[in-house]
Amino acid sequence: MPRQEGRDRQPDGAPSAPGSAPEPATVVVDAAVTGRRGRLRTTLDLIRSNPTGRAALRIFIGVTGAIVVIIGLILVPLPGPGWLIVIGGLAIWAVEFHWARRLLAFTRKHVTSWTRWVTRQSLLVRGAIALACFVFVSAVVWLSVKLGLGIDLVATVLKYIATN
Q1: Which of 70, 100, 133, 137 can bridge 93 by disulfide, Cβ–Cβ 3.0-4.6 Å?
Q2: pTM score, whole prediction
């Protein structure tokens, strides 16, 4: 068992006299281990310290991340935060898997650089990018509804407009 500071030494570093009361153990709190992240890191380290806990944690993180990624991929063609949910699942995997941490860093780097590039462009270019995104998402939604439900949204809308 590791020796704790102040247990068998006096404050000046000299050994304690036999039979004397030991000094109270000093606790050194690292600034990086405070707050929610610190508590989470401490809890995860405690779980990882046991081989069974380590295996259970890897399985739990793997399954949870896979469920979130699959839900996100299902939602990608629909309007909404599909890709954001996929990246959230990747972040869950990154807690335990090194390859996911690297992929998340790669994704974060490229999304950040893309965002910076778009914000430097003129209003006309940003409008063209927004229009292209709108056309792409509309085409994906139309195709998903047509193939998934058998409903042609364009034909339905055109028929509705023609009757009114």
Answers
A1: 100
A2: 0.56
